[in-house]
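Input for the complex:
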Amino acid sequence: MKGADAMKIAVGPLLFGWPEPKIREMYLALAAEPDVDILYVGEVVCSKRSISGLQWQLSLAEELKASGKEIVLSTLAMPTTEGELQFIRDLANAAGESGLAIEANDMGSVAIAEAQGVSFVAGPHLNIYSYGSLEQLRACGAKRAVLPLELAARDIPSVVQQSDVELEYFAYGHLPLTFSARCYAARAHGLSKQECRHVCFLHDSGIEMHTLDGRDFATINGTQVMSHKPFTAIGHLEELAGFGVHILRISPQASGTAEVVNRCRAVADDLQTGEEALSALAGGRALQDVFCNGYYHGRQGRTWVDA
Amino acid sequence: MKPELVCPAGNLPALKAAVDAGGDTVYMGFRNASNARNFEGLNFNREEAETGISYAHARSVRVFVAVNTSPRPGVDSDWTASIDMAAELGADAVIVSDMALLAYAREHYPMLRRHLSVQASACNHEALNFYQRHFDIKRAVLPRVLTLDAIRDIAANTAVEIEIFVSGGLCVMAEGRCWLSSYVTGDSPNMHGVCSPAHAVRFEEVDDTLAVKLDGVLVNRFAPGTPAAYPTLCKGRFEACGKQGHVMEDPYSLNALDMLPEIFAAGITGLKIEGRQRSKHYVREVVSVWRSAVDACAAAPESYRPMPEWMASLDATSEGGAHTAGAYVDEWR
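Predicted:
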């Protein structure tokens, strides 16, 4: 497939709240997948989930490095306490020492990476809607960027222009739509964020939220709200390559992540068509009942647009 | 030091009401997608802006202009033109979120104060100091996701002035990092300056109840005779874990009158009242209450207590008719 065969595949940071042994098991399995090129590791949504702290994340990264794949250390999207900022400073410091990049999901993390001279990936929560913003981040040390998920694919070229920042596109997974100070998972269980008892660990794919007439609406993931269905752009890889995308991000799910990676690779390498890959991933169900892709087409994010 | 009361002006009558009711500063936007309240019938054209700024300046009231959405690819001249117009009309500051626009404003109008919009979602001092280093911002409006303790820490670790929301509609998500509106309707605060836009709202009578939908998605349902609230997505009723209710946020308004002495002590420069979409009557009422409260607290912070009639007045005019201190207190989370 024109241009797509050169694309790399990244497994994004796990966005759901899982107990640490389960997270490690998933990443070790994906590190053994030949089709995975890049692994992002680290908590993005809620610092309360990081039970064992910095050393745990660093030792998992160290373990994954043995696979020969690129490892990126992801950071919190909304650090508001000094403890959370210090975690990011320490992580950036460790990343610098071992030659790894961090994924910055907040301008505070960009500031820390810039101050420490650590290379970073500008994550999807930095609001890069314009070429000027992308160039500003490049000047601060961004080697790669993920543009806002709501941006239509056709608008990518005018944001990227001639920038030499690598472009990564969120190509599969539940869309992370919002962040709040309030934990909606705790609230759904009648608890507060302070006394959350880690209820998110009970829901490895988040909590489904429906409308009052019983229709699918969205997914609660702690302090985050996500799309109900996974987004997919697997049917548009050639077009994405033409728009300047170098890397496809697959956001890990509770099951089936390796199959998504394998099929994505196969489509990029012209071993199967996007339609074949999608209908296999949908297990025979109609695509609009399984996936959303409205944002790709500049439409409502929850919707499915054929072709 | 007494914090500055920063008041909403959605149009010329509201601007005059805010000035007359004792606002120290008013904030406004131009009539295009360059500001985060791009609502039908709101905002200022050039002539109205000129009149409004003259009216405010003649009464020693400052005017900030919000240019706080992200330039849309291909039509970004709407945004730079808004910065140009703010500078030409003598605005006292521009409120900006996008880095490219901040850079534009700094390059072309170095003497025009740049304030970081809440839409930039800067929620720690590292972020504020970053924007200060690169764009020489003088002030930042903080997202409504921080506790007052966290705000105090931020203020203590930056030379950037801090402005916080104290009254009005409560955005419960980190502003600038919420795509719920485009997920449902296709239009978002960051790109279109709207959240849960009016053009997508439909009211339908179904089996004796009033269904309120946003682009076909049921956001709430009301029994006959109960007032129907505007279907802002995060304040809708949904179902999760088998329970129906306000899964994300109750339809309350923010009201920090109770916390004014702590806010004074936290090193905060600006107190912002939300509501550019509200009427001149609302603006006059709310600004008057806050003027009285800020003056009372400045005169005697130890003995300050919000007057019952202030609370009643704010509740009567507020969305939902009830209030919360939101993220400023830990229990809300």
